[in-house]
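Run folding on both entries below.
>entry_1
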Amino acid sequence: MKKTTQYGRTTLSAVAGITMVVSMVATPAVAMADDAAQGAAEPVGGTEVRANSATVGSAQVAEAEVAGEFAFDQTTITPNAVIKTFFQKATQAICGASTSIAADNPLGWRLSVSGDVQNAFTATVGDLANEESVNKVMTCTCGGNPAGGRAIITADVKGIPIEALLSRAGAEPGANALTFVSADGTEMTLPLAYVIGRHAVLSYEINDEDLSASVGGNNQLWMMKTPANYFVRDVVEVVVSTEEVAPEAPGVNDEHPNSPNAGVLAGIQE
């Protein structure tokens, strides 16, 4: 009898459980039947699924077609006041700044071209500017400047093309390196082809003002697609040389990821 009683209780519990499950399953079935009788159910979120001849709303939202335009502008000129605040007050060492960034007389600055050339010469920037000066809208940025970073400027740069200096001096065939010597003794050696290919200019005006109103100094080397730390300042001599192995191009061993696109030539105005 004890065994029978335990079995009977188990049976009753099992039946009760089955009844509860059946009740839970039967409820949506009835609702589905009612929906079927009334017609298709209203879709949820724009989609619907049919099951057992009934329309069941889906919580999944269909994606709408999206159209738009992407544009960028690299020709907006940075005001000199902003350039001065960043390049002179915030980080005076950026862009190859020398110890002093005070301007003496940019056009009276004497510049020599020597080395492997046929006609070495020394002339004032003013004399050279009268013959060879050009304007280029260029961008200067720190090589480590992230996307959307503030370490970047775009300016109307007026200066003397390095290619014009080499043409006047008559660079020897096979010359492959240029060393820029600053007034404070700083030297920067770069591949000749790289400098020419990057439309390099020795600038003496930024946005129609002397460099002292913006980046500071008397002159500064500007190149496209080159990190700003290669923009040597206050150049007094350009030495042309022929090396067994040409020097490495800027950015080759730089760790910052932005160096390949650090500077951009936005346009040229003659």
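>entry_2
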Amino acid sequence: MKVHPMDGGCDKTKSKVIDTQIRYTAVVEGHAAWDSKASVDYDTKMSTNVEIAVKTGSNWTIEGSATLGSAMSVTTGYTNMGPHFAKQWRVPIEYKKIRETWKCNYGKNTYYRYRIQGGKYKVPNSGAVGKYGKDVRNKDGSAGYYKSPASHRAWVARGSYFQLTKNRSTKFSGAVSTFGIKLGASTQYDKDHKQRITAGSKTNARHDIWGKNDKVSGKPGVFYSF
């Protein structure tokens, strides 16, 4: 029986970066329906987890995730977009394709294992510091609101705002495609990573919102707008 890397009895002897790509990755999204504005802030100190893809043989699989890091501290995002606006925000992240050399059976057999992993925020030459991503307005509106659990719903008084600054965002499936592989990502909300809605004052009506995964004061992941 052949022994493959990670089966046991094998040792990794070398890791080498064989290629790099900078790809814009969805890290946060904002929502604003009628008479409201959406804002998102994303600080390049990161706080983002991106899935890792590995291949031993012919097929790529997802194996955990890595928390990205950066010594830089700059902020990008969008401010007061809307009404009827909802888009993801993407930032440039450098991805590495790494080849690992494994020796098995007391060095008698050599196997190669490949890994695709995100690294640091890196703006390409003459590139954008951030880009608009997928349009997600289909998540907003009455259909989603009335399907949501009542416990997830809340409202924002006219002329005021609400923002998420705690807990982890929802996972953005297919947040990036790099080296032909799609990877998911999620971001930790904090004072540097936010989703905000600012309600307008055109009428006396309230502005309804709801959390995807929980009440908005719990761990909603992202909130939508009615």
